[in-house]
Amino acid sequence: MKKLLLLTLVLSIFVSCKNETETLKTISVDYPKTNKIEVIDTIFGEAVSDPYRWLEDDRSPETEAWVKAENEATYGYLDNIPYRKELKERLTKLWNYEKIGSPFKEGDYTYFYKNDGLQNQYVIYRYKTGDDPSTAEVFLDPNTFKEDGTISLGGTSFSKDGKTLAYSISEGGSDWRKILIMNTETKEIVEDTLVDIKFSGMSWYKNEGFYYSSYDKPKGSELSAKTDQHKVYYHKLGTKQSEDELIFGGTPEQKHRYIGGGVTEDDKYLIISASVSTSGNKLFIKDLTKPNSKLITILNHTDSDTGILENVGTKLYLSTNLNAPNKRVVTVDASNPTPENWVDFIPETKNVLSPSTAGGYFFANYMVDAVSKILQYDYDGKLVREVELPGVGSAGGFGAKKEEKELYYSFTNYVTPGSIYKYDIENGTSELYRKPNIDFNPEDYESKQVFYKSKDGTKVPMIITHKKGLELNGKNPTILYGYGGFNISLTPSFSIANAVWMEQGGIYAVPNLRGGGEYGKAWHNAGTKLQKQNVFDDFIAAAEYLISENYTSSDYLAVRGGSNGGLLVGATMTQRPDLMKVALPAVGVLDMLRYHTFTAGAGWAYDYGTAEDSKEMFNYLKGYSPVHNVKEGVEYPATLVTTGDHDDRVVPAHSFKFAAELQSKQTGNNPTLIRIETDAGHGAGTPVSKTIEQYADIYGFTLYNMGFKVLPSKTTEKVKG
């Protein structure tokens, strides 16, 4: 039995140039039937219904049929949006400019990434160091991996002499990787492919082999089955993967969900970082110059985020937030490296520190209200200078090998396309190295930071970007984008998609919510576990600020976020469905009672807690879990849920169940649709062609449900819905 929604968007617009009334086409959505199969979990004595549990089986023909039917309904709706094609054409045109990354040296060559404009994946080029860059040749082209671009390049790692490359690939957007090994002179693959690798870097020891991380292959679906026993292996060149040496993990006392192994630049030490969640790590060090040396413990607890930044002989430089929520750099001797022996090198300040090294110096990248400030220090801890940046925004890339005389850094903000600058490390001068030639004029736009108060009085920053001269009349289409979790900071950066939105007279607003890392560990912790509601309150307050200041109104407001930001949107729209016209939860964590049972989800418990922790935690999670808070008789905003069928980070079942709940219980005429991308995962490596199509659909859906008959850039008139 199908539930038929006839959208009462039979709307008219007065077009002054024609002096006639036109009618907006009626779009009907015939939602597929979603079976309810009663499943009851009893948690702390409470019965919890989960009627869509069957959608968690990503390998079942029933789920496959449901995905197909939902996509047919969704695209049937999207195909009827009159300016969807126009949006796609504009996105395509603006996207089509040459994009080139910063150069880096490996062996005898200088390498760089480049995209001609609309290539699905970036291509690696190279030229002999010292030659003219115009002589660069294609070194590795991921567009040749698969015609539709759905096999992407992951990480790359060169041996110390640059003659061998290990690189990983992802198929269909999955977090599972394969590693291939190439002779860089002949460009030939020289060994069998390493398989079943996940959440891993590749760190070379001299030219002999490299360290990597993986899990045992899970039983059941590799896209949804739980993975929580990470291990570090060493692969010696010329041997089979089955012969790789297990370095760390695989025993009860070494059971961790995330483990990484890295070798210092001088090949002296192996550093092992081991975590049970996405926050906090243990730290170990092994002297590689001594055969059969043991791992020495630096930290035996997970109360901090600590890593080795650099070493000079046995002197270690560590970056840590142990007893320093905004981070500091300390030094210690490798022979006795535990915290009681640490000495401050770059002390903690009121701003959050992200340190790096290049050319024999340290670079302290500070976030000051979410924008960059860079200080350069020598190896004695003396401040050399503040790096003069091109403007107010985000600067990154202050890293290079110790012998380099120059480095390349990027600079961007919401109205400045990312440009690359060459920095002379010794004298501190910057020069523009590469500026993109893009059909976008930053002078036509403005971006300003405001501070507003959240529900509990906390002051929260937000950057609002739009065309200059915009009339604050409460009728501007606005996207409020947020994240608020996992110590991740949202710093200003340019986006082609956002540029197209702002061309339409749209406002793009980004608040720096609690749960993020913009103000250090305390800011992060204020949005975790039993304080998670602070994040939603911050987001709601941001929306209320935009409305009170007449930037927009509830009829013209869309809320958007991905992953943890998808949870943010799901929780906000179920708590305050009156606040926005459109909701856009992407690849969201939406079932808070079961998230920890899929893939690496249990590692997110630092931020969320789990329903198994305590009755209090269970009740708290259930109180905001989007899947469990869709109610009968409520009119929810027009909703376009987006996910990928190969997302094994946040499994698509979250989105499936949320969409099914919305479609079952929605009252009123707002559509509740789900767009499921095929051969796509959590986002990384998504082909450009798919990305453009997705943004055209999202923007088309958003503007249409705000009542725009034509694109806002074409008219000042609006259809009232």
UniProtKB/TrEMBL annotation:
Domain Peptidase S9A N-terminal, residue spans: 32-435
Domain of life of the native organism: Bacteria
Domain Peptidase S9 prolyl oligopeptidase catalytic positions: 492-707
Keyword Lipid metabolism: no
EC nos: 3.4.21.26
Alphabetically ordered keywords of this record: Hydrolase, Protease, Serine protease
SUPFAM superfamilies: alpha/beta-Hydrolases, Peptidase/esterase 'gauge' domain
Similarity annotation: Belongs to the peptidase S9A family.
Name of the featured protein: prolyl oligopeptidase
Native organism: Winogradskyella litoriviva
Taxon lineage: Bacteria, Pseudomonadati, Bacteroidota, Flavobacteriia, Flavobacteriales
